Amino acid sequence: MIASNIQKILSVLLSAILLAGSQMSYGQDQGNAPAPAPLGPADLQALVAPIALYPDALVAQILSAATFPDQVADAENWLQQNQNLTGNALMQAVDPLSFDPSVKALTQFPSVLENMAKNLGWTSALGEAYHLQTADVMTAVQTLRAKAKAAGNLQSGSQIKVVQESPQVIVIQPTNPQVVYVPTYNPTVVYGYPYVVPYYAPPPPPPPGAALLAFGAGIAIGAMMNNSCCGWGYSYWNCNWHSTTVIYRGGAYYGNPAWRGGVTHYNAGYNSATGTYARSATYSNGYGTTKAGQAYNPSTGTYARGASASNAYGSAGVAQAYNPRTGAYGATVQGSNANGSYGASTVSKNGNTAYSQHQTNAYGTTGSVQTTNGGKAYGASGQNNSAAVGQTANGNKYAAVNGNTYSNTGSGWTGNPNNTQKTTSNYSNSAQKSGSTYSNQSAASKGWSGQEKSGGSSAFGGGESSGWASRSESARGSSSMGWGGGGGRRR
């Protein structure tokens, strides 16, 4: 119940800032958060170089999915946890998930999704460029296709069909409409010009004499084209090179709508050494301030997110962290207003879970902690009295009233008046209740689950070795915050 409540409160706070971001994206004053300077043609060509030679429909999916980098990371992790699913079974499992349609579509191309997740800094930059400079990005793709064709490295074969529709448009489609081959190439050599892609680890150059454009195993898309369950499949995507937009289900599609500039301030960062990715957003108006943030560390598998809100009536904050590799999970919610303060936390791992709650007001403080293995404790303190009771996992019971302690280890209650040492020792690991500090509570029960670090870097980076490389205070979107809870919109 407590964990469920924390999830609901977190969703509400995240939704608040996402709504604010979306509202700012559609016509309100944008002067407080100017969009970043547009990228030039050379920079855009370098950015799209890793995917410019993919089939058109796959390019469309990637450009849209890149506007949801957190969902890309989440979907990749989901695939890793469900490697036994393939074909129709995989599609049926993906269909009810809350990912954007483009992210769902990429689950059918695991190598592509994995590459985007491993290069989240590049993915984020690509998504930002597509949403802010849609036509320029599409033009950059066509420029690179022309260069690869002129260099003799892009031509029709048993895997792809290359058609020059006009001097400015080269279309790439699967040779067999039922099977899609994903090309593999090094963008530093295939175009006849050594493009260096920002935030991207390119594959090694091919050996001498080998084709610069290679292909892995084909992916059958017949089920994707005909299965009525999944209207996000491969056949529903394409690129309209004449109107320079991605096409989804017959209409222009721009991915995450909150990536346009607005009053909301966005920040994102990427640590190229560890692969750590983080993003945050802040929204303020005359009524208060809302903040939200996320982070992902691919080295440890840890996901973390948090949000806070404050206004004239009070403040509230929530946080969660989860490591699907270890199963460790932690969450907390804390708040305060004119009447007092309150909070609750939960932490779990290996089937064991602990919960704590606290509340403080003018009459005093109450609190409780319980674990799934049978341990529990309750406490209260007021102006004139205080009391606490507890039970360990083996059934031993302890109590304290106004400084006097008592115990029952199976032979009845015995007193220990005027000695609080036992109380201190027996409650040293439990969370004290509201108003009191959490000085004796473990970090994990505060919602951050004590995950292992990788190379000394946390999910939120920082420090001299953090290596952040980003366009800060940019118009990066947050509508997908919540790890897969957002959907793209058409504009």
SSE arrangement:
Layout: H1 2-25, H2 41-48, H3 56-65, H4 69-81, H5 87-94, H6 101-106, H7 110-118, H8 120-132, H9 134-150, E1 160-166, E2 169-174, E3 179-180, E4 183-184, E5 214-215, E6 219-220, H10 222-226, E7 237-240, E8 245-248, E9 251-253, E10 265-270, E11 277-285, E12 288-297, E13 302-311, E14 314-323, E15 328-337, E16 340-349, E17 352-361, E18 364-371, E19 376-381, E20 386-391, E21 397-401, E22 404-408, E23 414-416, H11 421-426
Antiparallel strand pairs: 1-2, 3-6, 4-5, 7-8, 8-9, 10-11, 11-12, 12-13, 13-14, 14-15, 15-16, 16-17, 17-18, 18-19, 19-20, 20-21, 21-22, 22-23
Helix pairs in contact: 2-9, 4-7, 4-8, 8-9
